[in-house]
Design a protein that fits this description.
InterPro entries: Thioredoxin-like_sf (IPR036249). This is Thioredoxin-like [2Fe-2S] ferredoxin. The chain is of the alpha/beta class and about 230 residues long. Helix content is about 30%, strand content about 20%. It contains seven helices and ten strands. A five-stranded mixed beta sheet has the order 2-1-3-4-5, sandwiched between helices. It has a five-stranded mixed beta sheet with strand order 7-6-8-9-10, covered by helices on one side. Strand 8 and strand 9 form a beta hairpin.
């Protein structure tokens, strides 16, 4: 006998539009959880449903933009399932919804239950800090986000990919508020201790052009706001 299904749409990226997620969830009678940064986190939503006695939870990842691969959804869900005493059945779709008009039934047809044999959260590949020359911190605080930091982060990632600069060259990290908010969107580069204000998509591309050949400066550092 198939148990009743409780559907959870899981935002995979850091910039999935909340209004689009909410509308999609309402259309399908689902709740929303987040794989990273936003609330409720996936494990919190799974706890809530399990505590309520839900017998079968179906997870479908949603990615309207750049996001981790779908294997991360299964890995995180499996970690929760192994740690939870007497967990409910958890089923994870093997495909993602990347548009509001995607066929949910087709995605659900390829869903597979968690078995407990999935890959763990830990891996030898993630033991060491990447040997990067620069870490680029993209502010995603409320003011920077309101002024388009999501577009900045997307443009930065795409430009780095086009330039062949991976984590061993430039490590990108999205953060909470960094200050100074009047210069939003703000991006800082370490270990240069260099701060940039007003960084939109065009400026992000120009920043990437400078990072390939730059080396961390020696001597005294000054915290100043720069324009590209």
């Amino acid at each position: 006998m198939t148990l009743p299904m409780t559907l959870v749409l899981v935002a995979m990226g850091v910039a999935e539009p909340p209004d689009r997620l909410a509308a999609l969830a309402e259309r399908h009678g689902a709740s929303v959880a987040h794989l990273q940064l936003a609330d409720p986190a996936l494990h919190r939503e799974l706890d809530r449903l399990a505590d309520a006695g839900v017998p079968r939870i179906v997870l479908v990842g949603v990615a309207f933009g750049i996001a981790p691969g779908n294997s991360w959804l299964r890995r995180v869900a499996a970690h929760w399932w192994r740690e939870r005493p007497e967990p409910p059945e958890v089923v994870v779709a093997t495909g993602l919804l990347d548009h509001e008009d995607d066929d949910l039934e087709a995605v659900l047809a390829r869903a597979r239950p968690i078995t407990g044999t999935e890959a763990p959260l830990e891996s030898a590949a993630w033991e060491e800090v990447p040997a990067h020359r620069h870490q680029v911190l993209v502010c995603r605080g409320p003011r920077c986000t309101a002024r388009g930091a999501d577009d900045t982060a997307r443009a930065l990632t795409l430009a780095l990919m086009a330039a062949g600069l991976g984590d061993d060259g430039v490590l990108v990290t999205q953060t909470g508020c960094q200050f100074p908010c009047n210069h939003a969107p703000v991006v800082s580069v370490q270990p240069d201790d260099t701060w940039y204000g007003g960084v939109g998509p065009d400026e992000a591309e120009r920043l990437v052009e400078t990072l390939g050949a730059r080396r961390p400066p020696a001597g005294e550092r000054r915290r100043v706001i720069r324009r590209l």
